[in-house]
Structure formats: C-alpha cells, structure tokens
Amino acid sequence: MMAAMKTVMITGARTGLGLALAREFLKKDWGVIAAGRRMDELVEDVRNNSNTTILELELTDEAALRACAEKLAGVPIDVLINNAGRYDSSSVDSDEVVTSLNDITRVFTVNAIAPRLLADLLLPNLALGTEHLVVGISSGMGTFARLQGRGFDSYSRGTDNYEATHWVYSASKTALNYALLAFGISHPEIKVSLINPGWMRTNIGGKDAPLSTEESAQQIVELILAHETRLPQSALVDHSGKIMEL
Ligand SMILES: NC(=O)c1ccc[n+]([C@@H]2O[C@H](COP(=O)([O-])OP(=O)(O)OC[C@H]3O[C@@H](n4cnc5c(N)ncnc54)[C@H](OP(=O)(O)O)[C@@H]3O)[C@@H](O)[C@H]2O)c1
Predict the structure, then answer these.
(1) Phi and psi of 81, rounded to 5°?
(2) How far is the CA of 150 from the centre of ligand 1 (A)?
(3) 146: which strand partners?
(4) Which one of 8, 97, 137, 239 has the minimum C-beta count within 10 Å?
(5) What pTM value is reported for the model?
(6) 7-244: which CATH number, 2.40.40.10, 3.30.70.3450, 3.40.50.300, 3.40.50.720?
(7) Is 14 touching ligand 1 by the criterion CB < 6 Å?
C-alpha cells in the first residue's frame, strides 16, 4: 500500500527561506501549502507543481488568519512551519530601527503573535496529520544568551550590541520562542521546535550573508524529516541541529 502524502504548511513561502523550503519539500514528494502575500507572483516551478496549494495570507489581518483556517478545515497538516518574518529596519546594516508604536507592533504581530494564532487555529489540522510538528523559524538574535554576550555563532557580528540596537526584531523572536513553547506545553500532543536558519542572503539577511537559502533549507528539511531523533522538543537548534542556549 502506498503511504499517504505528507503535507507541510509554510508561511512567507513566496520569497527567501520559505520558497527554498517549499522547493525542498516538493523534491521529497510532500504536499506543500504555500502561504504568503502577493502569491500571484510565486515562481512558476512551485506554482505549477500539482502538490502545491497556494494560500494568500496577510499575517497582520485577523480575518485573513481565520479565513485561512476555515479554508483548510478538514485538511491534515503534518508540519506547520512559521517562517514569515519582518525585520525592524530597512537592512541588516542599518541602525535605524523602527520607533513608532504601529511599526513596532507590526514586527511583533508578524514574528510572534500571528504564528501563535495560526498554530492555535490550525490545531485541528495538526491533529489530523501524522507528524504533529510545529516549527518556528527563529533567530540567534532572539536569545538572551546573545543579548548578554554569550551564544555567538560563526555568523554573528561580535560584541557590538547589535542585538540590543535591534531590540524590536530580537524581542519579537524571543516572544515567538515563548509563544510557541507555551503552545507545546498547552498541547503536549504537538511537538514544537525552534530553528535558527543561520545568516542567509535574503531580503532580511542582505547580500553579504554567508549562507544561501538552499543550503539552510536542505539542512532544515533533513532535520524535520528525521525530527524524532534530530529535533528536540521545546528547544532552539541551529540549521545543523545543534542545540542553542535560549
Ligand atoms: N535571512 C537571515 O539571515 C535570517 C536569520 C535568522 C532568521 N531569519 C528568519 O527567517 C525567516 C525567513 O526570512 P528570510 O530571510 O527568508 O527573508 P524574506 O525573504 O524577507 O522572507 C520573509 C517572508 O515573510 C513574509 N512576510 C512579511 N510580513 C508578512 C505579513 N505581514 N504577512 C505575511 N507574510 C509576511 C514576506 O513577505 P513579503 O515579501 O510580502 O514581505 C516574506 O515572504 C524569517 O522569520 C526571518 O526572521 C532570517
């Protein structure tokens, strides 16, 4: 008997890491629910794959979040990857961090609040799946270890208080970690894992980053496929699976 196709839902799937993850899962013959904004611009190879389901999803719009859950009613989701994210300045090289309440709130909504609401809304779908896994694409910048001068990895920029300057993005990732780990504690039947994808060349990471999205996505998909042994419950790991201090 053929095994049923597994399904992953990925937010922010039109660009960057989200797109690379979608391509990687399609290569593994998974079904991909690709969610994001301006999905009419999604590249053809993913759009035209018969295993892709496209979902327009603006994460700051509560009605859109609820409509997405309604559209997916009864659809099993094996793995939910909360990948979409928003930075707190125009580029990684800028120290001009957003200062208005509206802009700060938007970063927190996209990076932490919407991912938790989505996990809550899609709980019935996760229960219908077989893997019962929620992944949060987090960041070393969201760790207290990094803020306090510990926990640097090969991509970090040294002790220049970068995380403190970019407190909006960093704190929103800390909030993501907390919100998803709390979700896992409230729903012990669901496994929650936080993954730091490393510094990648994307709209958020900029052009000088050492990693391509393909390199990071390949490693992350390997971790997810072997999550029973390689992804610890309720922990933050880097893209190679190494546990990081929160
Ligand atoms: N690049 C790095 O070095 C790095 C390092 C650590 C962690 N991360 C994390 O990796 C994840 C992917 O980011 P990336 O580097 O691949 O950058 P990216 O290409 O800019 O991807 C971010 C995605 O999130 C989507 N998004 C932003 N606001 C949204 C909203 N309101 N509603 C729905 N979708 C929204 C973006 O859509 P639009 O294009 O329409 O805005 C985009 O598709 C993020 O969570 C990021 O924080 C990245």
Answers:
(1) -110, 110
(2) 25
(3) none
(4) 97
(5) 0.98
(6) 3.40.50.720
(7) yes
